Amino acid sequence: xxxxxxxxxxxxxxxxxxxxxxxxxxxxxxxxxxxxxxxxxxxxxxxxxxxxxxxxxxxxxxxxxxxxxxxxxxxxxxxxxxxxxxxxxxxxxxxxxxxxxxxxxxxxxxxxxxxxxxxxxxxxxxxxxxxxxxxxxxxxxxxxxxxxxxxxxxxxxxxxxxxxxxxxxxxxxxxxxxxxxxxxxxxxxxxxxxxxxxxxxxxxxxxxxxxxxxxxxxxxxxxxxxxxxxxxxxxxxxxxxxxxxxxxxxxxxxxxxxxxxxxxxxxxxxxxxxxxxxxxxxxxxxxxxxxxxxxxxxxxxxxxxxxxxxxxxxxxxxx
Length: 319
What we know:
The protein is built from 12 helices and 12 strands. The chain is α/β, with parallel strands linked by helices.
């Protein structure tokens, strides 16, 4: 898909003389004009996050967000910090009586990768230092972000994860907190943690057991298999398939077709969350189990983790 340039290359003067960023649009993205950045009710801070590109589309009342990692496409502490600020700024500035927001979309600018998940380099260091507290704090931050996303930041909106590549480990877990997942054919999903003696600790058990039942959830978690977008669609995890390169258009079409039913869809999702609640305390308890298990890894397990991180880094560079 055509992509927005990853950096700001010029600025314009706002009504009060302040410099406001103007993004360079790629071909086919003219509809994502920076009217949102010029909208005085939206703070510039939202459009100046380090590893997240954010655009507000007035016509669809949609906030489009693209992960733009500085290094390996993973949830580094820097990216997690951006997500915390992103959620805070959305919660403070959008919704009834503020800037209207009906759809929140998360995608990635990393070619062929949605997200590889946890920061494996950080995990290795903390495990070798026997720093359980920092491992747990990392996990707590992850599940707190997912829990807020599950609750749609208490706004009457629908959340959409747009997948155009590999969604592995924590990247897959993060997607499970969205109301809807749209994936291109060729996108892949998997939970590789078991290959180095660990398990996904940031949401997989809580979300997949609700969505698929415990038996199927366990199969996905311990299989160490990579699943196609089509397989995820058949399981009901992916809600809409798109042809390669057509993910953005499919997302637009999904939003346009949902608009007439928006109120019903928002409340139907809320009802589902009442019927199948996922509590933050539950997810934090799983993080505790994950942190305990991480400290039990052997050196050979850490070497496997290191090889996986290196392979993913090479893949991202090649792409």
